[in-house]
Amino acid sequence: MTKDTLRKSTASLPQDAFGHSRDLLLALSRAAQSTQRAHTVEEVYQAVGRQIKFLGGDVSLLIVEEDPGQLVIAYTSYELSFLQRAEKFLGFSALGYRFAVSPDGVFARSMADGKTTYVESTKEYTAAMLPKSLRLMVEQVMRILKVKQGIFAPLCMDAEKLGVMVFTGSFLTEDDVPVMESFAAQIAVSLHNVRLTQQMQNELSTRKQMEEKLRQSEERYRSLFDNMMDGIYRSTHAGKFVDVNAAMIKMFGYSSREEMLAVDIKKELYFSPEERGSHILDTGQEEIEVYRMRRKDGSEIWVEDHGHYVHDEQGNILYHEGMLRDVTVRKKAEDNVLLQNAALEAAANAIAITDITGRLQWVNRAWVALTGYSKEESIGRNVRIIKSGKHDQTFYKKMWDTILRGKVWRGELVNRRKDGSLYDEEETITPVLDNQGNVTHFIAIKLDITERKRAEANLELLARTDALTGINNRRHLFELAVHEFEVARRYGHPLSVIMLDLDHFKDVNDTFGHAVGDQILQNVTQVARSQLRDVDLIGRYGGEEFVIILPVTSARQASLVAERIRGGVENLRIETDKGPASVTLSLGIAEMFHAPQDGSVDDMIRRADEALYAAKKAGRNCIAIFEAG
Question: What single DSSP character describes residue 174?
């Protein structure tokens, strides 16, 4: 992987709260695994550097060599161009640079107490590495290397101080200290093991020189074998241990080497035979396998097995040997991350995680189903892709003001799917805060309420309209009429009411049936609505009674409207098997007086009703206007 590719990969990593923990854990796990395959300290350094670089940071390893009072920069992952600029500025090369560790300085304190430390600024540590004559230039060096915050993790093996591992990068937070401390401990073990392995190889190569040296070498080998932090074993092909070290005995809960040598490996240490490292058994090639085993007390342990077969000159298997590492804690942590992701992925509600600009960083399957945008189409784009245009800027400003203050926002809004269709959703947006209380991400949980809103709208419509004619019912018409009455009174505008009634409608029902009667009511409604303006109101007041409210209209103007309605209804004919059915209308009109005696809508409707009565007395199929006494 080139540096440019590495930078692109790093930039694409999700930085949400769940993603950061997962990526850090997995990257460090990969690094730890890689170091177990290392045969040299340089391979250990490179394995660590690759994964930290992948996360977007850098790492330097400051190692104690011959002189315990000095640290040597044995490895650094900073880009060559940065190092060259720093070296040109300082006048010496970084790799291999040695500096004295002051007894009361930061590095001495760090190695003495063995604690991993997070710092917002690495200035003090960087200055401690420079010669006194150059320490005033520490700010320039930090700018060249683009260094700010960092984590300093001592590399310790029991009482042995191996050095200090320095992590830098903008992704680091104080919450990463426990993980980095554990990681540093693993790297210390790897360095320790590599050194021991190299020592073992060196010792074994000289075994034949002389018998005394052979005896001493065997003693050192046994010491190394017994003091390895990981379990070391050698077993027969039949499944019996030939040798185990102290770490192996402790790992599986046995009390002595003799007790463990008596164990039947296949029956007692595996939950099932097929859970053994099948690749090693089939091919004999060294491979890292992770699988579960059983302790003496029956409890489960997850191990990382580095093993291989040893053959004689004829190719027959002599024994199987390898190293086991207890990775139970790591395995459970990885499983928890996977479980959390699976739970979010399987949630019925749509879930999206964005950065503080609204750029999508993670979505679940329910989001895809709700919006129509696939995960690939969503991630990296702004959440504005589902904006419907149905809400003004004030609406969005209030929402953003709330969540940027770290408060939870809840509300309903209309959004647009990929196919252009609109949907209603109920949304909760929860800010994610860092240790300093700054908002870093938002988690949005969305519930599709389109059907609920449609049902509510239908119920509201049913509550406001007459089921047969589709116009306002009496209650809703009266509410609207009160508003128009108040407007007319406030501004002195004219306002008229028409009350109309179907003549002899009972006879029509008795003669032609209620179905024909219902159709006549619907047709009368259509005729009346065809003569009204958008601002006019019409409602069914009773069985065959209708009321029309005409804003900014005098009684004379209302009479013209009434006449057109009367004439239109008079010409209506409905063909039935009993002959044509028709009706006529009687209409009464009243105008608002703007006087004390006209104190309410009820007064106007009462006067219109009196005019209607007058029209009935006048022979029906006519119009009457209320005239003040």
Answer: G
Closest residue by Cα to residue 369 from 390, 339, 346: 346
Structural tokens at position 346: 């399987």
**pLDDT tens digits, one per residue of 416-471:** 999 999 999 999 999 999 889 999 999 999 988 888 878 877 777 777 889 899 99
Please determine, for residue 402, whether its predicted confidence score (pLDDT) is greater than 90.
Answer: yes
Question: Is residue 10 scored above 50 in pLDDT?
Answer: no
The answer for residues whose C-beta is within 8 angstroms of residue 550's C-beta and 6 or more apart is 495, 496, 497, 498, 532, 536, 557, 558, 561
In a domain, residue 327? The reply is yes
> Looking at the 3D structure of the chain, how many domains does it have?
4
For residues 158 and 191, the answer to whether their CB atoms sit within 8 Å is: no
- Among residues 311, 246, 257, 312, the alpha carbon closest in space to that of 285 is found at 311
Q: Which two tokens stand for residue 590?
A: 């009243």
Which tokens is 533 given? 């303006």
Please name the residues in contact with 232: beta carbons below 8 A apart, sequence gap of 6 or more.
225, 243, 244, 245, 247, 248, 321, 322, 323, 324
Q: List 410's β-bridge partners, or say none.
A: 428
What angle in degrees, to the nearest 10, is found between the helix axes of 177-205 and 211-227?
Answer: 160
* 338 found inside a domain: no
- Indicate which CATH number applies to the domain containing 530: 3.30.70.270
Q: Which residue has the higher pLDDT, 136 or 593?
A: 593
Give the bridge partners for 100, in sequence order: 70
Quick check: 357 and 403 in contact, CB under 8 A? no
Provide CB contacts within 8 A for 530, sequence distance 6+. Answer: 568
Residue 138's domain comprises 3-200
The confidence score (pLDDT) of residue 1 equals: 35
